[in-house]
């Protein structure tokens, strides 16, 4: 029985989480420079205290359409071997401390997103928290 | 407080440097054995090592160097003269010293090798002076013993020390030990084999550039020492001066610094440049005089600081070249060739990381030259060349880049053999092979797997082929070019951009975003307004072009290339109110990039794009502008390739060779024109010197002829329409949309004179295969009419047209 902390967020109808240690910071929407000719999941580049960070739109990566309500996305900046990368999400959730006993591998009947992007899920009171595999999520489709 | 470890480390660092210099000095002494200065310098170096090793209780080392020193005393005092035999002995000693030091560094004490035989050799040299006579079998046995011993001197640690926090050097195991016979003409008539020279050559993996190694400042070239104004305090190396008493005073004015410290400084300066840009931008928008003045000062200081820090990392290319003479000497001795090395521009300076990156490629290229390029002496003499081959190493700055050339006067690259080899290895198929140009064939040797491993022994197996050389060069942003003439020689040219991170760039706006274009690629800026946009942007072969002082410049519209908007039609392009063209240079082609507007030039810090964006060829990186926003930096060559302005001829060997064959032999380029009467005529494009437009008002009469003043000459005009009769220029609408007060002229060069052929309108440039019916009289000069673009087209032979008019 071990506990881990997860940073959670909403993308569309999905409730996703990433280990807290992977997350460098969480930011509100930043000014972004678009990168023409790049894959459409790349929303653009932003200036994070002097570092140039690529922002990936998770909605697009998961095959969901763009937001229609005009509310800007939030940035979840994760650490990768290549440097920090930002994931654009709809809404930030709480940091949850979860018990590994509640962890289950990816259900067969997973709906709403590609299976390889999820490592598994935690059973919560009223919903499932799906653990995002950041490495897979960032693997370039192009 | 320094521990014993630190003292040993410093000793090793200094000694390695001394040994490197020793190598060079010994080689120089072979050419000029009486150079007192060099003899003294060599003596002092060994003397120093001997002294310190005794102090540190490295007995073996002391013993070996002691014997060497005794020999050197004789040389220095003039009692003996340096010759090849002595040089070999001393070089062997140098190698032995290196091996012992490598063992010390690896924490293994002095190592287990026995140097008794080396010592014996050196002692004997003190007596014989390297002059052997043929009689004694005893000598032969000695020689054999020496050769056996020298063969066991395995690990020769190459070049610099790798110093990391764990302080363990990586001593790569010896790849191979070779022994060579060295033929030496002694005073007598016979060639006697006197000494067998053992050389071991070690290949070392290039590890990551993050490993720091100390920079050596000062030493032989005096100007270097003057530049060593320490931009950073030396950490714990301050008292190193005490430990090296015998160094010349030149090195006292230099400081040894960790490269990682310099890297840190470079980064900080990079950030400072960005901050400076920000402040400068702000100060422009404010009236406050104090801020403006202060930011100006900040600007000046930052620029100077930037230049200064960059200089600290600049080292003369000499440091990469200094090993090469020895490599050449050893390898040529091994192969029985005679080669001299000439260096030009050894003081050309490069950033240290570039130096590190090209060291191995240079060595490989030089080895190739010695091995395959330069022929054996007898072959050379038979071909009328001097028996001694020459290898030139040239370095110079040009156009913001460092050029490094390695040339030899050897046999050149045998393209036929290359082709056969590539065919036999399945890299190309016979069809492709048939259609390749010389350049494409030459570049075949850059393909992976195309190594000449069959003949060279000690380079094989490590994947060090020309392709690795090319990759290494490209990794630092450089280019590699090969030029070879069969029988004459080969030249390899490497071009590397000078500054890695901070570049001046032009900012442009396109599609609402800002982009930066490195100034090094920038030729000029052109702005077209109103009518000029309409008239001067032309369409040739469906490519928009602009004629810049007679030169046709293909145009790329940046917003179209970036897919920010769909492709415009020619009319839309002509209808623009204002067109900004940035004339750029991509390799050897110039082209025009059309942008929405041009902002200004500024210095930017190039930051690499992340993994995910590296694949987009159009960008070279990104930067943070003065206002904090991110801008993309355009990669001019990538853009040119994407826009088809530049062929990607690097990969040509696999791809398009077949189509270009067809183009060359049968099809020619034709300039299709309307002579002025609505018909269609074609002129072979190769015969056309220029296409010009003249205002009707500039046409003057000279006797019966019409002429124009053209580039300080008088250009006679001829009209095609009715076979050179002078008809008045018809202004009716049969010319379509062309402006009526100018005329199109095809300039043709005829025996040194230029003639202008007036045509009604230039229609197109096409590729067309000339078709000749057998029935036609083959004696007629002018080929019959052809069908081009669906219309009957008369073929105009400019030569006969002009001739008949004269």
Secondary structure layout plus pairing:
The complex is a heterodimer of chains A (142) and B (806).
Chain A: E1 3-11, E2 14-19, E3 23-27, E4 42-48, E5 51-57, H1 58-61, E6 74-80, E7 83-89, E8 91-99, E9 103-104, E10 118-123, E11 128-132, H2 134-138
Parallel strand pairs in A: 2-11, 5-7
Antiparallel strand pairs in A: 1-2, 1-8, 3-6, 4-5, 6-7, 9-10, 10-11
Chain B: H1 4-31, H2 36-55, H3 59-76, H4 84-105, H5 116-128, H6 137-152, E1 176-185, E2 191-201, H7 222-227, H8 240-243, H9 259-284, H10 289-312, E3 314-316, H11 318-321, H12 324-335, E4 339-344, E5 349-351, H13 352-373, H14 377-382, E6 389-398, E7 401-408, H15 415-424, H16 430-434, H17 438-443, H18 466-475, E8 479-485, E9 489-497, E10 502-510, E11 513-518, E12 522-529, H19 530-536, E13 537-540, E14 543-548, E15 551-557, H20 558-561, H21 570-574, E16 578-586, E17 589-595, E18 597-605, E19 619-624, E20 630-634, H22 636-642, H23 657-665, E21 667-674, E22 680-684, E23 688-695, E24 700-702, E25 705-710, E26 713-719, E27 742-750, E28 753-759, E29 761-769, E30 786-788, E31 791-796, H24 798-805
Parallel strand pairs in B: 4-6, 11-20, 15-17, 22-31, 26-28
Antiparallel strand pairs in B: 1-2, 3-5, 6-7, 7-9, 8-9, 10-11, 10-18, 12-16, 13-14, 14-15, 16-17, 19-20, 21-22, 21-29, 23-27, 24-25, 25-26, 27-28, 30-31
Helix pairs in contact in B: 1-2, 1-4, 2-3, 3-4, 3-5, 4-5, 9-10, 12-13, 13-18
Description:
The complex is a heterodimer of chains A (142) and B (806). Chain A has one domain (3-138): OB fold (Dihydrolipoamide Acetyltransferase, E2P) (Beta Barrel). By secondary structure, chain A is mainly β. Chain A is globular and about 45 Å long. The longest helix of chain A is centred in the C-terminal third of the chain and has 5 residues, at 134-138. Chain A has helices at residues 58-61, 134-138, and strands at residues 3-11, 14-19, 23-27, 42-48, 51-57, 74-80, 83-89, 91-99, 103-104, 118-123, 128-132. Chain A starts with a strand and ends with a helix. Chain A is built from two helices and eleven strands. In chain A, the strands form two sheets. A six-stranded mixed beta sheet of chain A has the order 8-1-2-11-10-9. In chain B, helix 1 (4-31) runs antiparallel to helix 2 and helix 3 (59-76) runs antiparallel to helix 4. Chain B is α+β, with helices and mostly antiparallel strands and 806 residues long. Helices cover 36% and strands 27% of the residues of chain B. Mean pLDDT of chain B is 73; it is low at 134-140, 154-251, 459-463, 648-666, 722-739 and 774-781. Chain B folds into four domains: 4-172, Four Helix Bundle (Hemerythrin (Met), subunit A); 316-497, Heat Shock Protein 90 (2-Layer Sandwich); 506-653, CheA-289, Domain 4 (OB fold (Dihydrolipoamide Acetyltransferase, E2P), Beta Barrel), CATH 2.40.50.180; 667-805, OB fold (Dihydrolipoamide Acetyltransferase, E2P) (Beta Barrel). Chain B is globular, with a radius of gyration of 34 Å. Classes of the chains: A mainly beta (142), B alpha+beta (806).
